[in-house]
Amino acid sequence: MARRLRLPIVAVGIPALAGLSVLHGLVPPHPGPLVAIDALGANLGLTLLFGLATAIPTVLVAGPLFAKLAVRWVPVTAPDVAPDGKADVPAEAPEEQRRGRVGVGAAVVVVLVPVVLMLIRAVAEVTLPDGDGVRSALEVAGEPIVALLVGVVTAIVLLGLPAGMDRHELSRSIGGSLPPIAGILLIVGAGSGFKQT
To answer: Which of 121, 113, 114, 116 has the alpha carbon at shortest distance from 140?
Structure first.
């Protein structure tokens, strides 16, 4: 990314690291905050609201603002060739080479869908009476596991289908995404098991 944007590596890496760190520690549905919510008996919606209120300014200060300062100390640029020795696909590449690229708007929608569903659940818990059918439906939709599942289905519809992927390619892509995260799932699961949560 730094090579394509012609920016120092620190200018790209620090904002990415700030965003990932904040999401890891503050914002559900990441497993860390969910475990803390469960252990403390906290309200999921309020935790999400306060987490976002804390996360946004933190990311802005620790990300792009700090990166501008850090670039002066560590002015490292990206190499001209990728680590695997292959050149990047140029911006003017033929359409078949560029296939698979999606719009930024669709990617942002996919990321925000689970968060929005959990926020709607929090609002429903505060504004609607107990036993209301709409509230019950929104509570189910805003449950973290359900919200993440809706996010995955949204990703298939907004990212896979517009890229021209057929049913077999979608299945292969989803199946291929599981092995790289197996280690992370094992670590999170083991940590939860060892802490008896």
So the answer is: 121
Burial of residue 114 (CB within 10 Å: 0-12, 13-18, 19+) is: buried
Give the tokens for residue 184. Answer: 């992370």
Q: Closest Cα to residue 160, out of 181, 143, 145, 177?
A: 177
DSSP H or E stretch at residue 7 = none
- Is the entire prediction scored with pTM above 0.70? no
Q: pLDDT tens digits, residue range 13-44? A: 889 888 888 877 777 777 777 777 878 888 87
Cα–Cα dist 124/142, whole Å: 10
Q: Give the burial string for 23-50 (b: 16+ CB within 10 Å, else e).
A: beebbbbbbebbeebeeeeeebbebbee
Six-digit token pair at 134? 């709409």
